[in-house]
Design brief:
Elements: H1 11-22, E1 29-32, H2 42-57, E2 61-66, H3 76-88, E3 96-98, H4 103-115, E4 119-122, H5 126-131, H6 150-162, E5 171-174, E6 189-193, E7 207-209, H7 211-222, E8 226-230, H8 237-245, E9 254-258, H9 270-278, H10 293-299, H11 303-313, H12 324-338, E10 340-342, E11 344-345, E12 348-353, E13 361-367, E14 377-383, E15 385-389, E16 409-412, E17 417-425, E18 431-439, E19 456-457, E20 460-461, E21 466-473, E22 500-508, E23 520-523, E24 527-531, E25 541-547, H13 551-558
Parallel strand pairs: 1-2, 2-3, 8-9, 10-23, 12-18, 16-19, 21-25
Antiparallel strand pairs: 4-5, 5-6, 6-7, 11-22, 12-15, 13-14, 15-20, 16-17, 17-18, 21-22, 23-24, 24-25
The structure holds one RNA strand of 75 nucleotides.
RNA sequence: UGGGGCGUGGCCAAGCGGUAAGGCAAGGGACUUUGGAUCCCUGACUCGGAGGUUCGAAUCCUCCCGCCCCAGCCA
């Protein structure tokens, strides 16, 4: 942290400042320790931004460490995806580490604990261990194997390592206190036998360390000064400390807990996320509706907007539920200044400008971004037949409707004023075309007489229009707090049926034919969109990142009933 | 009825004994060639509740209430 920085510090930053001032630590070293058993989501992003951010602002270091102590769940491809996601978010780790690289050292510490009489091999079955653990209000019972001699335990531990026991036959346990009020301290398991190949160590080991036994040691090996985890691990801190305090470790890290992120209208649990995929409700981990980093990326979110969001939500210890509107706000704010404005008619309505010469076409100079004049202008073709948005015309307009209606005049962005003269309907009464008239004197979008035209519409020249597919995404669930589902219901009962709407008849101005995957645009008056990677030259595909704020929609919904 | 954590406006969140920051959302207005953006303005007479200490308390003490987490050979 810069000296003299007046910024308010979160509680972890305050602790770090104190630690630096007291000399407890010389340099801040943190770590982001994912288990490679799934994809990262926005909740992980909070932790990533916290850990890497702390290292950045205190000029320290942050490691990316795979906490890969369970071969049953972990896979190489998850590890690769996590590395990519952390890098995409814009962070560089000081070291790339793997808990599995420390297995030998863990074993030595286990031997040290056994030798000190602080660990023992328990031959009880998993069921017996569970039954003798006691309950929240009753103490547990000592294992009948608790008082073996050190020699016997050492021998048994070696046999465990050599594979002389089957899975479930025995475990190594810390000898702490079976009547401890904190259940985690009731002789926790340190090693279990798992005759499974590990994605990195192969078949070298047939027993694997448990989280509580391993985690503090991983931190100690790497010299982590501040080991940050989520609230549910607060109960484990006494254990974290116990393991570190009872052997000789190279450094003494401290654990701190913060509240994990919850976002409204979505879920963060790997299990539920996986369920959505397996049931075909979404199309994979990178479906733009998913709160995964890959989903957000495909949706069009930028790394900087996600980092901004993580900075906005703060770091504290109270369980919280952040409004998804805040996430939307951060991407809107960024894209407002960086996204090129283009015109795309989502649901086209044909307009023929009767007094515009047939066969004539011209190029209209169009501002790429009014927020940033340095982005320049481009030329957009205009002609006698254009398309406008169906929603921009009402045969019988309500009050305060500034758009097109019979006899009403509007402005076509950067082009001309347009007045509706005639409506053409099909046999079933649907409006299929508008016959309009333009004012040749209004080129560019204004006239010498200075008359006011309230509505400005986006448009696309019919002969030049490019057919595009547009995917409109919305929130996945209808329940704000998904942890408050009604008794007996599942997330299936709260799925938003409109989380994806695909539009295939949308028409865009020619420049969009050149758009590349992950390019981001503002479709004028509508929202921000990005090019999906399934996009092709023939049919460009756009994902809606977020809609623009829609004051008109708000007015309408409020005035519902009084027209 | 064990242990741990947390309760500040609708949602986050500062505040660390001196008289309630900020952001999002909401409402009102100005401006506008995006009903976008921008710009103003409004909102906790009060900090879960009740007592107490103090000249002074969201901040200290006591009691009470509420919510979350823990009984994997998961992390």
């Amino acid at each position: 942290m810069e000296p003299g920085n007046e910024k308010q510090l979160n509680f972890i930053e305050q602790i770090i400042v104190e630690d630096l001032e007291s000399g407890r630590v010389q340099e801040v070293i943190t770590r982001f320790p994912p288990e490679p058993n799934g994809y990262l989501h926005i909740g992980h992003a909070k932790s990533i931004c916290l850990n890497f951010g702390l290292a950045e602002s205190f000029k320290g270091k942050c490691n990316l460490r795979f906490d890969d102590t369970n071969p049953e769940k972990e896979e190489e491809h998850y590890m690769q995806a996590i590395k990519e996601d952390v890098g995409w978010l814009g962070f560089q780790w000081a070291q790339l580490c793997y808990a599995s690289d420390y297995f030998e050292q863990f074993y030595r510490w286990a031997v040290e604990l056994v030798t000190a009489g602080l660990a023992y091999v328990d031959r009880q079955s998993p069921e017996e261990i569970r039954q003798t653990r006691g309950t929240l209000t009753e103490p547990g019972e000592n294992s009948p194997f608790r008082n073996r001699s050190v020699e016997e335990n050492l021998d048994l531990l070696e046999k465990m390592r050599k594979g002389e026991f089957d899975e479930g036959e025995c475990v190594l346990r810390a000898k702490i206190d079976m009547s401890h009020p904190n259940i985690n301290m009731r002789d926790p398991v340190m090693y279990r036998i798992l005759k499974k190949a590990h994605y990195r160590t192969g078949n070298h080991w047939c027993m694997y360390p448990m989280y509580d036994f391993a985690h503090g040691y991983e931190d100690a090996i790497e010299g982590i000064t501040h080991s940050i985890c989520t609230l549910e691990f607060a109960d484990h801190r006494p254990l974290y400390d116990w393991f570190l305090d009872n052997v000789h470790v190279p450094s003494r890290p401290r654990q701190y807990e913060f509240a994990r992120l919850n976002l409204s209208y979505t879920v963060m649990s790997k299990r539920l996320l996986l369920g959505l995929i397996q049931e075909g409700i979404v199309n994979g981990w990178d479906d733009p509706r998913m709160p995964t980093i890959q989903g957000l990326r495909r949706r069009g979110y930028t790394p900087s907007s996600i980092r901004r969001f993580c900075g906005e939500i703060g770091v504290a210890k109270s369980n919280s539920m952040v409004d998804y509107e805040l996430l939307e706000h951060t991407i809107r704010e960024e894209l407002n200044t960086t996204a090129q404005r283009v015109m795309v008619v989502l649901r086209p309505l044909k307009v023929v400008i009767e007094n515009y010469p047939e066969g004539r076409e011209e190029l209209i100079e169009y501002q790429n971004n009014p927020e940033d004049p340095s982005m320049g202008t481009r030329m957009v073709p205009f002609s006698r037949e254009i398309y406008i948005e169906q929603d921009d015309f009402r045969e019988d307009p309500p009050k305060k409707f500034f758009r097109l209606a019979p006899g009403k005049e509007v402005r076509l962005k950067h082009a001309y004023y347009l007045t509706c003269r005639e409506i053409i309907k099909d046999t079933s009464g649907n409006i299929v075309e508008l016959r309009c008239e333009y004012d040749p004197q209004s080129r560019g979008g204004e006239t010498a007489d200075g008359r006011k035209v309230r509505g400005t519409l986006h448009w696309v020249s019919a002969p030049h229009a490019v057919n595009v597919e547009v995917r409109l995404y919305d929130k996945l669930f209808t329940l704000k707090n998904m942890s408050e589902m009604e008794e007996g219901k599942s997330y299936h009962d709260y799925l938003n049926p409109n989380s994806l709407e695909v539009l295939r008849g949308s028409l865009a101005e020619p420049v969009l034919k050149e758009a590349k995957p992950f390019d981001r645009f503002q479709f004028l008056r509508q929202g921000y969109y990005t090019v999906d990677y399934e996009s092709t030259q023939d049919t460009p595909i756009f994902n809606r990142i977020v809609a623009l704020k829609d004051t008109w929609a708000k007015i309408q919904s409020k005035g519902l009933g009084n027209r």
